[in-house]
């Protein structure tokens, strides 16, 4: 993208309404604009971030054989009456009436709809297990929308739902999803620690929230540093073997990790002092096994191996895709701006032409840009070098390729790594090889 022709409205001043750093930076870097309380438009660079996050989430869901669907945002109230949640959900649900006075709602989540869809089509245990997911906008009329996209009212969520014939199989689905989440967050370049969460009346130990450490997080978190050392991208887990899944689950859940709601001071004191990590965290994901709660309430059965009908066991699994855009910035920025992890950055590199109109600078920049126009943001504005540097730092591109008249004569550019500030003088070819 050529900066001179793009819609990337950066702001020099800190917007007064933004209380936390990610919100400030998302507004200043031209990623989002608020259109109503807790509702945001995503501008070109922000949309690229949202797509990159969604794509990694999608690949990791597909990897465990979850299948993507797309359910609508509007749902009928009758569907929710069948589960008993229409009245129970309370004021967070946005209720709507159409011209025929039929009651609808903007979905805050999709358990009812997916249970109904599943029940209409799957009649036998032979067609199970199934895990379905979608990446779709949700609406929750939060009492206090705040912190930009971190607590919006309209927000993008990946929600998956598993259907299994029995408890053992449901546990395997849950554990597979836990692995997918750990891999997803690792690929997004963030440390999201799984923490035991409340299961309510369901009981058991099959509810975990994933939290990213950030001082502005809404939950207090306590965890064992051993969790920071786990690497799930390079550790193969056989997701078809229940034993392998169990060993994996035990490894993840053995070290202490809890939010303030579930904190157990006695267990905490058993963690060696040098490994205790304590702080605030942002919930970016939540996985939950709830058994036959919805299939029973909504009367969904399949025929079991013995011919008798059974209620499928379910779990649901959410990732806050739009919240992650903010949470990643909370975890990765400095005083000059955003530091995007490579995997989510809107552009891999900015090309900074320090002397527009200089034949050699222009030619070299064009050569670089032509190599991968979809990955580069070419700053071809007639601006001072200082402005270009500041905007590139603010927008947080992982690399900056700086082209000035002195180096350009010899075909040399300066390559700067945003995360470390490290600079090196390299040839055009070397710059391309490192960045792409
Ligand atoms: P919170 O505790 O922050 O209110 P939640 O527990 O109500 O979140 P879940 O129902 O578990 O949320 O939804 C799954 C995921 O959706 C959450 O882990 C979070 O990442 C995201 N999410 C929930 N509410 C919002 C919101 N208002 N804005 C942005 N993302 C949200
Ligand atoms: Mg909530
Ligand atoms: Mg929560
Ligand atoms: Mg939750």
From TrEMBL:
Keywords: Aminoacyl-tRNA synthetase, ATP-binding, Cytoplasm, Ligase, Nucleotide-binding, Protein biosynthesis. It is an enzyme of class 6 (ligase). SUPFAM superfamilies: Class II aaRS ABD-related, Class II aaRS and biotin synthetases. The keyword Cytoplasm applies. Residues 33-341 form the Aminoacyl-transfer RNA synthetases class-II family profile domain. GO terms for biological process: prolyl-tRNA aminoacylation. GO terms for cellular component: cytosol. It is found in: Cytoplasm. It catalyses: tRNA(Pro) + L-proline + ATP = L-prolyl-tRNA(Pro) + AMP + diphosphate. InterPro entries: aa-tRNA-synt_IIb, aa-tRNA-synth_II, aa-tRNA-synth_II/BPL/LPL, Anticodon-bd, Anticodon-bd_dom_sf, Pro-tRNA-ligase_IIa, Pro-tRNA-synth_IIa_bac-type, Pro-tRNA_synthetase. PROSITE patterns: AA_TRNA_LIGASE_II (PS50862). Its EC number is 6.1.1.15. Pfam families: HGTP_anticodon, tRNA-synt_2b. The keyword Protein biosynthesis applies. GO terms for molecular function: ATP binding; proline-tRNA ligase activity. Homodimer. PANTHER family: MITOCHONDRIAL RIBOSOME PROTEIN L39/PROLYL-TRNA LIGASE FAMILY MEMBER, PROLINE--TRNA LIGASE. Catalyzes the attachment of proline to tRNA(Pro) in a two-step reaction: proline is first activated by ATP to form Pro-AMP and then transferred to the acceptor end of tRNA(Pro). Belongs to the class-II aminoacyl-tRNA synthetase family. ProS type 2 subfamily. This is Proline--tRNA ligase. It comes from Acetobacter vaccinii. The gene is proS.
